[in-house]
Amino acid sequence: MERRTFIMTALAGTTCLALGINYALTDVTVSTDEFDDKHRLLFSVLLPVLLDGALPDVPVLKRDAQNRTLDAIEQTMALLPKDNQIELEKLLELLESRLGILILTGSMTPLMMRSSTELVNMLERWRASYIDMMVIAYQGLRELVMASYYSAPEHWSRLHYAKPSFLEEAK
Question: In which domain of life is the source organism classified (predicted)?
């Protein structure tokens, strides 16, 4: 194959892909009421991978921490600026659709059916990608999960952080 043919084919494929994604995602609406139905399952799959080592080892405590984090993610998403909410919603919709997951990961296997190792490898590829969109997607998901998890005061001890008490210092 000639270099020119390869470049033109890649350019045409990328253009078709971009147009297809743009067409498929034109009227995305943001509704936090739908979070439990749609995105809670997706985040429940990503939480153990993104919070590896931070979650408690005891199964009951781990489940409770994950549920509190899922609730905090919902609240955090509601506080984001409208533009960021729309972008995040588009990413989550892509991660939940077969075509979107194929585009983002190169495999049609849903995230819910992947092992932890496969999810870690996928996120590492995103983190180290030369495509800015993939890096931003990784950073956005990671920051959302981390901020939601560490927003709970009971998780601060792992960071060796104690809430400042200004009243004791004033005495």
Answer: Bacteria
